């Protein structure tokens, strides 16, 4: 059936962008495509066999050697693994195209370190189904989103004051601090450094903060940790945080606030008082990162996509900004609080106007968009009312 129907043009465009501009596949390379089998049967690791076949076909068409490996690795809380067999296979490849919700560089310190030490070009593919590969989100040019990411980063200078308000009652102020993440020695960087390449591209480099004070309200978070907090990734009554000098002093709200408070307390034996840190933020950069329930029935996965939308600002809740983990707990507690209609100033530059990322109007960004007149880009993006 796959051979009879072929691959839709929209998916061919997306896969071409993935393989040529992000993965940069070359003839003769060893390319490993890694995915979880549970995702075929309703598990959190959303994936489709046909989508993987399309990507594998694209790799082979470029003269590279494509190997598909299916993992059966249930996630066990506080004992998440990078399977040894998968680890050995990754060590033998030139490029890894990873299709995983559970095993990601943000949370898994061992996995991230292994990729960096072995200099594997890691592509974290978010478009893991046929419908997602056919979406406007996947067809938006990788070059365009990369340019947005770079241009927005140029506005973050160490020592600049920043201020944020939101229609949900948020009011925060602070200062941009030096980066303490070796992957981002400063904030004005392109993705060429390091070995980690998300596709579609999704967030600006994390910004370390100091002197943060005020009120932060949010009603959604990344869904990796929400599962373990036992709350949905989006909810109705906001969680309200009182912040004093980069520390969470009060957590208020409904049932979700109670569960977050209990979860942070339960994590103190593992990560210490850092569970109340509030010293890192960044935001999405993709103007087309929205898909319908029909395109993606998984609420957990739709929230991952929403997280990288150019309207989405998020702060890290209770984690060291460098994400190093420790030998006792080799995972990073990467809980986020997300807002969607914020106004944000850094220095005298307004970066957000009620959820609209003003860098989308930058001449350099518009020039890249103009190179792709037949692809989803910036044409329909508008300021939220």
SSE layout and pairing:
Elements: H1 2-5, H2 9-22, E1 30-36, H3 49-61, E2 65-71, H4 84-91, E3 95-99, H5 109-118, E4 121-125, H6 130-133, H7 136-139, H8 142-153, E5 161-166, E6 171-176, E7 196-199, E8 207-220, H9 223-229, E9 234-244, E10 247-252, H10 255-271, E11 280-283, H11 299-307, E12 313-317, E13 335-339, E14 342-346, E15 349-353, E16 356-357, H12 363-370
Parallel strand pairs: 1-2, 1-3, 3-4, 4-7
Antiparallel strand pairs: 5-6, 5-14, 6-8, 8-9, 8-11, 9-10, 11-12, 12-13, 14-15, 15-16
Helix pairs in contact: 2-3, 8-12
How far the N terminus sits from the C terminus, by CA atoms, comes to 46 Å
Mind summarizing the main beta sheet?
Answer: 11 strands, antiparallel
Radius of gyration: 20 Å
**What percent of the residues sit in helical stretches (DSSP H or I)?**
25-40%
Question: What attributes does this structure have?
Answer:
385 residues; 12 helices; alpha+beta; 5-stranded parallel β-sheet; single chain; 29% helix
Question: Can you describe this structure?
Answer:
The chain has helices spanning 2-5, 9-22, 49-61, 84-91, 109-118, 130-133, 136-139, 142-153, 223-229, 255-271, 299-307, 363-370; strands at 30-36, 65-71, 95-99, 121-125, 161-166, 171-176, 196-199, 207-220, 234-244, 247-252, 280-283, 313-317, 335-339, 342-346, 349-353, 356-357. With 385 residues, it is of the alpha+beta class. The strands form two sheets. Strands 5, 6, 8, 9, 10, 11, 12, 13, 14, 15 and 16 form an eleven-stranded antiparallel β-sheet that branches. Strands 2-1-3-4-7 form a five-stranded parallel β-sheet, with helices on both faces.
């Amino acid at each position: 059936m796959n051979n009879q129907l072929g691959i839709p043009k929209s998916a061919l465009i997306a896969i071409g962008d993935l393989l040529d501009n992000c993965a940069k596949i070359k003839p003769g390379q060893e390319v490993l495509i890694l995915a979880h089998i549970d995702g075929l049967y309703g598990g959190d690791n959303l994936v489709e066999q046909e989508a993987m076949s399309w990507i594998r076909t694209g790799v082979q068409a470029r003269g590279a050697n494509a190997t598909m490996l299916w993992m059966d690795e249930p996630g066990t809380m506080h004992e998440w693994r990078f399977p040894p067999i998968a680890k050995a296979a990754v060590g033998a490849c030139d490029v890894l195209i990873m299709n995983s919700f559970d095993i990601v560089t943000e949370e898994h310190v061992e996995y991230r370190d292994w990729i960096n030490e072995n200099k594997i070009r890691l592509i974290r593919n978010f478009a893991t189904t046929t419908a997602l590969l056919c979406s406007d989100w996947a067809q938006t040019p990788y070059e365009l989103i990369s340019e947005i990411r770079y241009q927005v980063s140029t506005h973050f200078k160490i020592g600049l004051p920043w201020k944020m308000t939101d229609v949900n009652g948020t009011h925060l102020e602070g200062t941009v601090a030096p980066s303490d993440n070796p992957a981002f020695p400063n904030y004005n960087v392109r993705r060429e450094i390091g070995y980690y390449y998300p596709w579609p591209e999704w967030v600006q480099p994390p910004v370390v903060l100091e002197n943060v004070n005020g009120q932060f309200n949010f009603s959604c978070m990344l869904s990796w940790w929400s599962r373990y907090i036992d709350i949905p990734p989006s909810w109705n009554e906001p969680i309200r945080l009182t912040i004093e000098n980069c520390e969470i002093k009060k957590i208020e709200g409904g049932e979700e606030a109670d569960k977050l408070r209990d979860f942070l307390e339960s994590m103190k034996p593992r990560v210490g008082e850092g569970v109340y840190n509030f010293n890192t933020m960044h935001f999405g950069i993709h103007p087309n990162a929205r898909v319908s329930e029909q395109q993606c029935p998984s609420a957990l996965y739709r929230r991952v996509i929403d997280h990288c939308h150019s309207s989405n600002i998020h702060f890290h809740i209770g984690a060291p900004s460098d994400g190093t983990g420790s030998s006792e707990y080799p995972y990073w507690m990467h809980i986020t609080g997300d807002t969607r209609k914020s106004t944000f100033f850094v220095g005298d530059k307004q970066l957000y106007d009620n959820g609209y990322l003003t860098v989308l109007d930058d001449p350099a960004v518009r020039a890249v968009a103009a190179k792709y007149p037949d692809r989803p880009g910036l044409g329909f993006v508008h300021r939220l009312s």
